[in-house]
Amino acid sequence: MTDHKTGTREEWLNSSPPQGHRLYDAGLMLWEEFDRPGAARAFRVVRPDELQAEHWFELEPAAGAAVLRHTVEGCAAGKYEAIWRERIEPLHDLILEALLDNVEAALASGS
C-alpha cells in the first residue's frame, strides 16, 4: 500500500505483497509477522520508529462456536499521531471490516 493510493477495500487488501520473510510493506509502515503466544497471527510495526504498534488475532472456543478477536496496541509520536488518526486508522478499519466479512462468508459457505 502507498500512502496516496485510493481504491476499493479489495484493492487495498491485495496491494501489500510480502517484502521478504514475514515482512509486509504498507507504504507508511513496514510490518513484520511474529509469533505471539495465544495468537493465530500477529504483526508489529518495524518502521517508522515514531509508530510503535502490534496487532494480533486470537481464536477462542465458545459454546458451539468460536470467537475471533482482533487487538491493536501501540502508540504514535510526533507527526504520526495525526497520520494515524486521519489516514491509517480509517483505512485499518475498512481492511478489518473486509477481513471479517471474508471470515463470515467462509463460515457461511462451510469453507
Keywords:
111 residues; 2 helices; disordered N terminus
Short description:
This protein has two helices and five strands; from the N terminus they run αβββββα.
Give a verbal description of the structure.
By secondary structure, this protein is an alpha+beta fold. The chain has one domain (about 10-110). About 30% of the residues lie in helices and about 35% in strands. It has helices at about 10-15, 80-110; strands spanning about 25, 30-35, 40-45, 50-60, 65-75. The longest helix is centred in the C-terminal third of the chain and has 31 residues, at about 80-110. The protein is globular. The relative contact order is 0.14.
List the helices and strands and how they pair.
Layout: H1 9-13, E1 23-25, E2 30-34, E3 41-47, E4 51-62, E5 65-76, H2 79-109
Antiparallel strand pairs: 1-2, 2-3, 3-4, 4-5
Distance between the termini: 28 Å
What characterizes the major β-sheet?
Answer: 5 strands, antiparallel
Helix content: 25-40%
Strand residues, percent: 35-45%
Output the helix-strand order: HEEEEEH
Oligomer: single chain
Q: Give me the Rg, rounded.
A: 15 Å
Outline, from the CA principal axes? globular
* Unreliable residue runs: 1-13
* Total number of domains: 1
How many DSSP E strands? 5
In what order do the strands lie side by side in the largest sheet? 1-2-3-4-5
Number of helices, counting only DSSP H or I runs of 4 residues or more: 2
Structural class: alpha+beta
Summarize model confidence as the mean pLDDT.
82
